[in-house]
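Internal ticket - ligand job 456, pyridoxal-5'-phosphate:
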Amino acid sequence: MRYVSTRDNSKEYSFEDVFIKGLADDGGLYVPTSLKKFSPEELSKLKKLNYNDISTEIINQFSSDFISKGDLSSLIKKSYSTFREKEVVKISNVGDLKLLELFHGPTLAFKDIAMQFIGNLYEYYLTKNNKKINIVVATSGDTGAAAIDAIKGKSNLNIFVLHPNNRISPVQRKLMTTVEDDNVFNIAIDGNFDDCQNIVKQMFSDLDFSKSINMSGVNSINWARIIAQAVYYFYAYFKLNVDKPISFSVPTGNFGDVFAGYLSKQMGLPIDKLIVATNENDILHRAISNGDYVSRKVKETLSPSMDIQLASNFERLIYYVNSSNSEITSDIMKKIKQNEFQIDKSNLDIIQKDFVSESCDEDETLGIIKENFEKNGIILDPHTAVGVGVAHKLSFNDCVVLSTAHPCKFPSATDNAINKHEELPKELQYVHGKEENFQLLKNDTDEVKNFVKSKL
Ligand SMILES: *Cc1c(COP(=O)(O)O)cnc(C)c1O
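stdout (C-alpha cells):
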C-alpha cells in the first residue's frame, strides 16, 4: 500500500516512511492512496476470529510491505500479552448503552492499545536497521504514559515527553514521571497542551534539527496508531452480533480515535453514525454541527485528555471530504492556522452523513457520573462520562460508547461527583510513593531543542 501527504499528494511513501516519520515534511498527514473494503462475506469470516487475529488481518492491509503477516501476528500477540483482559477490550452495559472498555492496558487508557503495538513495531524496525531513534511527543496526559510504557527499556530508542505543567491529573503524571529507565525523559512545559503540541510540530518542521536527531513521532497523527485503533470498532461490532449498522459515541480530543472509526466505516464495517463527544472545548462540535472551526482559548476541564482546540487528525477528514485534493486541503490548513476557517455547506453535508456531535459541560459531566453510579453502580471516568452524556443528549439510546480511561486515573473528578474514587490496580500503586523525575521548561521551542540535544 502506498501513502501520500494530505498537503501534497504528488509524492508517494511507504508504510515505513509513514510510521517512522509520523508527520510529512510538508506538515501534512499521511493517508493511504486506496483502502481495502471488506465484503459482507469477508466480514463474517473476520467475525469468527479473536482480537489478536482481527488485528492482524486489519493491520496487515496497511503494513504488508514492511512486516510479514506472520511477524505481525507475533508482534501483536506480544503487544497485548500484558493487558488485564485476555481479549484486550471488553464490552459491558451502562443502562441501555454498551461500553467498549478500552482501558485494560498497562497505563489504564485506550492509548495503550495502539502504543504497545507501535513500541514493538519500532523494535522490529530497529533490529533490521542500525539506527538510533529519538521519539518526541506531546501529551494531554494519557499519550505520554502509554508511550513511555511502550518504549521504556527498548534499545536504540529514547523518548521525550512534553506535558502541560500542572494541567494533567497527578495519577497521569506519576505514571510517566516515576519510570526509571534511562531512555525516558519527561518535560513539563509552562503552557497548555496545544503549546506542547506546537513545540513538537515546530521541532519536526525544523528539518535540520529533526533529521539530525532522527526524530520520530508517536502522537495520534501517526497512521500506525490509527490502524491499531480501527481494530476495536470491528471487534465491538462483531461481539454485538447484530445485523444492522451501529453507532459509536467517541470522547474526542485530537480526532484520532473517532477517525479510526471513520476508517473502519470506509473499510466496509456497518457503522451508522460516529458521534463526536466533546467537553467544553467544543470546537469539533461547533465544526460538525454548523461549520464553525474557529478555535477559542483552551479551558481546563475534568476531562483533560480532551482539552484540545486544534484537533490534528481533522486534517485527514478535510482531505477526504474534498475528494483527496491536497491543494484545497493546504489552503484550508492555512486558513485554520490564521484561525478563520468555516466549513462550507457542501463539505458540511458530506461530514454530517457520517458524523454527529454534541458537547457536555462540567456540570453535565459530573451529573452523568453521579447518575450512573446511583442507577447502575458504575463509576465512569470523566471522558467516558462525556461520551455517555452526549449519547443521551442526542437520544442515541443503543449505541456503543468508547470507554477511554479507567476511572482511577481521574480520582478528583469522581470525588467531586460522588465523593468516591477508584484506587489504582494493585500493580500500579507503587507510583504513589515513588520519586518523580521531570524537567520544567518554558513554552519555548529552542529551549526544548537544547534540552533534547543535551541528553543525546
Ligand atoms: C486521548 C484521549 C481521548 C481523546 O482521543 P483522541 O484520539 O485525541 O480524540 C479521550 N479520552 C481519553 C481518556 C484519552 O486519553
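Auto-summary: The radius of gyration is 20 Å. Residues 90-107+223-418 form a domain with the Rossmann fold fold (CATH 3.40.50.1100).
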